[in-house]
Amino acid sequence: MKESIEKIFKELEELKAASQKEAEEARIRFLGKKGEITALMDQFRSIAPELKREYGQKLNELKKAAMARIEELKACVGEAEASTAPKEDLSMPGDAFPLGSRHPVSIVRQQIVDIFRKFGYDVAEGPEIEDDYHVFEALNFPPNHPAREMQDTFFVSTGHVNPLLLRTHTSSVQVRTMESQSLPIRVSCPGRVFRNEAISARAHCIFHQVEGLYIDKNVTFADLKQAILLFAREMFGADSQIRMRPSYFPFTEPSAEVDVSCNICKGKGCNICKGTGWLEIMGCGMVDPNVLKASGIDPQQYSGFAFGMGIERIAMLKWQVNDLRHYFENDMRFLSEFSTATEV
Ligand code: DAH
Fold it and tell me: How far is the CA of 170 from the centre of ligand 1 (A)?
């Protein structure tokens, strides 16, 4: 029995296991019902009483040692198995980080500003909360002009001579530029404007405009026409044509409305241009002498032209989006359509 005990001690020392399964097999071999140590325990019952004490102790130690050794092996292979087993499933598709894209209104605003920058126009900005003077009076609006009425303008404060209001057009930035910059002036003025209108497919109470202003000596209507033709060709394609129709704005004289040839049907007539072959893109004109005078510029020495266009309108024509509301609802299905539309 003594030899058997020593033999098992030795075996335990050298015992190895490469997996949980092998460690469990070793436990069964030594400590299972029919295990080697269990068998020794059985033999122990029938040994001479004077030897019991000595062997009893030895057997107990052996049993403890076997249990400890097998525990140790199990823990070791457990760790090894855990560290070699791949923790992550590397074949799983990664989490996509959705990349945002620029809003179509921002894209078109940037395109317009970039085109005019090439022609030498700086960018000027002004406040969205403006006063009556910069939005109407300095722009030659007569005192009772309907645009000043409550139904068009959101007033911030009323009851005094120069009420505060949300600007109804970016033409107010013309005035601020003429007041603060030295001549000659060449600016484009992008910005948000507000009008008290019922929201529909064609109108919104908030939208965006780009205003343009050029003042120098000897600026003529021919210069205006050329600037707008070049703009239309950059924006809508090199074969674009423009036409001008007489119009009226208080701040320009003469004034015109500009159409560009329909870039969908190339002038033949389609449902976008309602069969006319032309699309209206902006208002423009020669700056009225009264407007120059109001900002301290001598109309005898200087002349200039101005134009103003709606950014949403240009975007609608570019991408044939026929409902203005899409631009304001932040529907991802709509916005993600423009993720690649950054080229002019
Ligand atoms: N301010 C005009 C509007 O909001 C647009 C406009 C028309 C601007 C003619 C101009 C212009 O500078 O010359 O409808």
Answer: 8
